[in-house]
Amino acid sequence: MNPDSEEDDDWTKYADTGYTSSYDPWADMVPATELEEEEFDEEFEEFDDEHSTRRDIPRCPAPSGIENAIRIGTCNHCLGRVAGVRIAGDPLQIVGERVREKALERDSDLKVDEETDCCPFCEDLFRELDLIANRIVTAVGGVEFTKVQLGIHFSKDHVAAEEVLRSTLAATGSRPLKATLSDAIQSTVAEKLPGITWVKERPEIMLLFDTLTLGVNADIRALFLYGRYRKLERGIPQTRWPCRACRGRDGGCESCNGTGQQYPFSIQSLVCEPMVESSGASSDAFHGMGREDIDVRCLGDGRPFVAELKSPLRRTLDLEKLTKSINKAAENQIEIHGLRLSNRAEVSRIKETKAEKSYTIRFNGDHGFTDEEVSTRIQSLSGKVLEQQTPQRVAHRRADKIRKRKVVSIDNILIEDDEIQFDVRCESGTYVKELVHSDEGRTNPSVAALLETDCEVILLDVKDIHAD
Ligand SMILES: [Zn+2]
Ligand SMILES: [Zn+2]
């Protein structure tokens, strides 16, 4: 019984009648308030009466306590739960049935009060077990999963009312409603879906059951796949990039050929689209361990990534086959390897990893030095700490500040007249192009300053990412 329900009904009528006519929300305010106060007092007295009566009734498992529980309409499930009679191994409704039979043997006149319209403990939720289980089975239909978790949402009023009732009528130590209902739903569903496991953490499906609407919501948790990608061709961004003109809305525009994308491919689209197809996912997200510029290749062992496949219908994927089909479709563009199952925690791990990186950089500079002198000057950067003011090219999206990054080593210096190339290993977050051209003096020291000339970067490749 909800003490507020009458008040709610009154308010609904009051609002409905007022709505169509010229409605003055303040007109009835004074009488309405007075009425409410009177009603409240009456209800409060009734509530108190109920309590004092209950105090005179012995609690379960006393026979008169059990008889009272039956009289007020307690269902077999709840009777099995609150009677305080333990019959090892038997389901609650069977225990309840026996308790009821015994009580009827003692007093054949015992019957349920006529005013009772549902079990006062569970509000007849246990009678709906089959319906609830069927709704769950429907909600997860067509989804591959084994680990599932159940959450139940009760109205606060129901939980509070049940607790009061249990503390006054039930045997000491009776299990709470929520835990009992949860167990009952789980075993009913398990009969219909053999092979599933109910878990308390990291489910593949999170079910939420609402006791008020009997509605079931199934949240299919994402599937995460870890791998490394090598980017073999320049001009491919790491993630999808909506068209600048139409922002990807309304099916694209003329400048993006109706794709909604600024670039026809991205690492994300090349890697994730075959994954979405084979898993039946609804969408994807791509998490890389850092990213290279669009015009930079990524070679060596490649860059670690985690692909997140949302709401997948299938989880058992042939990763070897998937790798092959991704690599075949993206031939000469990208290549992935080392695909394995991952999890959300690994997304944070790769996002937070500050891996040193090696680059190959090639540039043009009209210097006046001998090859030996050029080599010595570039080599002198090895072990130096750079001071890098936020580059002009990223200033629109990053705060203007000075970063300190260490050049770990310099190798393989190659000098072909004005074209010079070298490998550099440096700390995560180093602006490598700026290390060469100095960004008008914003990076210090720099190759341009050491060679006393302007330097123009011709190409840059990520040679390796030094992560596990
Ligand atoms: Zn019940
Ligand atoms: Zn467009």
Brief digest:
Helices cover 36% and strands 24% of the residues. It has 14 helices and 14 strands.
Description:
- This protein is of the alpha+beta class and 468 residues long.
- The protein folds into 4 domains: 5-56; 63-220, no CATH class; 223-352, Alpha-Beta Plaits (2-Layer Sandwich); 356-466, Alpha-Beta Plaits (2-Layer Sandwich), CATH 3.30.70.
- It is 36% helix and 24% strand.
- The chain is built from 14 helices and 14 strands.
- Strands 5, 6, 7, 8, 9, 10, 11, 12, 13 and 14 form a 10-stranded mixed sheet that branches. It has a 4-stranded mixed sheet with strand order 2-1-3-4.
- Helix 4 (76-82) crosses helix 5 (92-106) and helix 9 crosses helix 10 (319-329).
- The structure holds zinc ion (2 copies).
- One zinc ion binds next to loops.
